[in-house]
Recover the amino acids of this structure.
């Protein structure tokens, strides 16, 4: 057979040469891009795929979560991986320490806003445990070999155990639980509420891994190493630095997320720290939030209606008996109002015997810290629950850090004593577990601002009377306009029909949900609105 000889056509050598030049140029450009990424992040992100769930406590023991939790939001924002976060919970210790809980709420409320986190996947375990379990279960059961769930556990194991225990056993093998602390995270229990440990988690059939203790890495570093955050022109980084509660800058629980996004079992970085995350945080936009150095604090937005008058969207019910069907009869939603002890409330419960099974509250799902709450109320005719002792009695609890009946929080009293014709709306009530400072007329039990000669309360009682006013509506079927101005733990101002009637200082707790009461008599609530603020507004602004 005759051999076939291939001859290059004219110009083919030139084309081949050009192709090689383009390939070489692409290789150089690609190398430059990779070098740029390496220079920016030092550790190249090697995200293993799948989705991320994170659990924090912070409301007891672990003060490092004040900064670790929002740090996780910040890292995901800076890395462009926010879409991978499908579950985030906080305040997961089932025994609250009220001061720590308030700080954790402050970190959460600001963190989700500053770092653009989807609030629908963020859960407060103190008020949203059932929803958190349902969300984790739903996300876990989407998992597959190619779409696993990475679960960073920065708190005790009780709540994570409840999550995983609810998941289909066939899906648990696609969950990898990550810990970095062999004592508090893995072994801490607090009976009878908390009894499950890391070993119990393992027994459920998930994958588990303990990375290096992140308290022993640069995630827990001398504060001077991160003064660049404090001194940044980016107010978000200034705020993040301010959330640290320790002598060192301790964001140790964030090391687990970093381990996941830098490769997880394929080489996640266990020894990273501030030099690694610095360029990530510095890539975050400063946005339009109010700078803490500014002397002119501005509201985030105008007043927002938070009760739609149609249903319980954004709210939930709690009465002492725990009877959910009865709770809906106690708090009827009708004609744009919350109608307490109204027409749907069984008449046989109008006992006036002191029985209090229908004492309760309609609570917000959202927590608040710095805001103005406005609402209207008027009295009806029906009575229930110890009416002879307390007459027409209801109220609004704010800065609530649990949702018991009655809760830890501060109360704006709504009350009319028809036996003396005295109105008590605006009185302050300090339940057990709450605290504030209060000033009164010397030798009196009536509020008087210290600038006008008010003296510190000495008896430390639980009820503090508002200044008397004739501007109120009692049994005349007319509405009263109420306003509660609250600035974190700094102060609270109570107003009734435009007049300041009471004030408290140095509040504890300093943040939380709020709730409207059912107590002794039929009452209507409507036009519930909130205006939130980024910063503390001086009280003088509202006292003018």
């Amino acid at each position: 057979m005759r051999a076939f000889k291939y001859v290059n056509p004219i110009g083919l050598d030139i084309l081949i040469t050009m192709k090689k030049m383009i390939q070489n140029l692409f290789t150089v450009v690609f190398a430059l891009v990779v070098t740029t990424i390496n220079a920016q992040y030092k550790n190249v992100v090697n995200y293993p795929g799948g989705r991320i769930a994170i659990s924090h406590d912070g409301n007891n023991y672990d003060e490092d979560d004040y900064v670790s939790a929002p740090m996780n939001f910040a890292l995901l924002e800076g890395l462009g991986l926010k879409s991978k976060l499908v579950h985030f919970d906080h305040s997961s210790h089932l025994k609250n320490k009220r001061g720590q809980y308030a700080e954790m709420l402050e970190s959460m409320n600001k963190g989700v806003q500053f770092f653009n986190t989807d609030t629908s996947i963020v859960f407060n375990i103190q008020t949203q445990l059932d929803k958190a379990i349902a969300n984790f279960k739903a996300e876990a059961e989407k998992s597959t070999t190619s779409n696993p769930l990475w679960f960073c556990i920065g708190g005790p194991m009780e709540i994570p155990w409840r999550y995983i225990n609810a998941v289909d056993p066939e899906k648990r093998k696609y969950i990898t639980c990550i810990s970095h602390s062999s004592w508090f995270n893995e072994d801490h229990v607090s009976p009878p509420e908390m009894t499950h440990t890391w070993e119990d988690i393992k027994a459920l059939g998930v994958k588990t891994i303990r990375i290096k203790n992140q308290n022993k890495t640069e995630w827990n570093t001398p504060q001077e190493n991160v003064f660049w955050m404090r001194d940044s022109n980016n107010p978000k980084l200034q705020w993040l630095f301010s959330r640290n509660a320790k002598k060192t800058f301790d964001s140790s629980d964030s090391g687990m997320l970093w381990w996941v996004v830098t490769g997880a079992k394929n080489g996640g970085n266990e020894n990273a720290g501030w030099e690694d995350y610095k360029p990530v945080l510095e890539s975050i936009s400063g946005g339009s939030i109010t700078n803490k150095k500014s002397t002119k604090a501005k509201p985030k937005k105008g007043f927002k209606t938070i009760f739609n008058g149609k249903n319980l969207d954004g709210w939930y019910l709690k009465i002492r008996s725990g009877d959910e069907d009865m709770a809906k009869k106690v708090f009827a939603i009708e004609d744009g109002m919350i109608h307490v002890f109204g027409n749907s409330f069984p008449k046989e419960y109008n006992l006036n015997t002191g029985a209090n099974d229908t004492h309760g509250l309609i609570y917000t799902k959202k927590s608040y810290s710095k805001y103005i709450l406005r609402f209207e109320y008027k009295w009806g005719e029906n009575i229930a629950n110890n009416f002879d002792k307390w007459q027409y009695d209801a109220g609004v609890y704010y800065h609530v850090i649990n949702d018991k009946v009655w809760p830890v929080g501060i109360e704006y009293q709504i009350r009319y004593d028809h036996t003396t014709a005295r109105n008590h709306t605006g009185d302050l009530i300090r339940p057990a577990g709450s605290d504030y400072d209060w000033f009164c007329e010397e030798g009196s039990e009536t509020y008087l601002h210290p600038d006008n000669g008010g003296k510190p309360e000495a008896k430390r009682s639980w009820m503090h009377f508002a200044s008397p006013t004739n501007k109120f509506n009692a049994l005349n079927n007319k509405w009263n306009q109420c306003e509660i101005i609250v600035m974190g733990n700094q102060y609270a101002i109570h107003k009734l029909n435009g007049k300041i009637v009471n004030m408290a200082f140095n509040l504890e707790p300093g943040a939380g949900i709020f709730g409207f009461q059912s107590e002794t008599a039929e009452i209507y609530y409507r036009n519930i609105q909130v205006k939130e603020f980024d910063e503390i507004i001086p009280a003088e602004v509202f006292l003018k």
